[in-house]
Amino acid sequence: MSDNAEKPRVLVVEDEERIAGILLDYLKQSGFETDASYSGDGVVESVKENPPDILLLDLMLPGVDGLTICREVRKFSELPIIMVTARVDELDRLLGLELGADDYICKPFSPREVVARVKAVLRRHRHSPEPVSDSRIFQIDEGALRICVEGEKLDLTPMEFRLLSKLINNPGRVYSRAHLHELCTGPEQRSVDRTIDSHIKNLRKKIARYLPDREVIHSVYGVGYRFEI
User: Fold this and answer.
1) pLDDT tens, 88-134?
2) E strand residue ranges, 17-80
3) How many whole angstroms from its chain centre is CA 77?
4) Domain 9-127, what architecture?
């Protein structure tokens, strides 16, 4: 965290200077300090020497690419990272690589949406410094395929158990529908979106019986879902 807590610093790594300029302008107007890099070269070293509060990282960069930067940064820092990609079909691959990014944004995007995502990720990091899957709330018995909420057993199908246990064991991580669909088997499951959305809807209903005022499975617009208490 930078010294000036009232003005978090965002490092924007984006090779398209016009896009970078727009992002920098919107972030500054929203009260952020900003720095920019227009290639991947030297970014890891810069983060080590002068860590920003959050890294907005394009996937395709001249020099060192965004995937490599994300991996290298994760070796020494839990710095919040938002990955940006111009290809929607890259999202499933990114989410399956377990890179440790906190969020993903697809181009073209609204600059206001990017600012909102930056604020949301920073809030999560500030308010949830430790894993949020509190064992006092959710208890998982892998052998019995059983999950309890505050001591009360959820009536889950085997598929629902696999999905929910995966989400609970990886709090805050964003999963695409396609990635979650890999947990689903059966020739009748033709539509990834419809299958996963149906399972998530059922899980939310069952959890709501015991946690009526708390949503724990959050939708990530255009991507999928994450678990967060």
Assistant:
1) 666 656 655 556 778 888 888 889 989 998 998 898 777 554 444 45
2) 33-37, 54-58
3) 16
4) 3-Layer(aba) Sandwich (3.40)
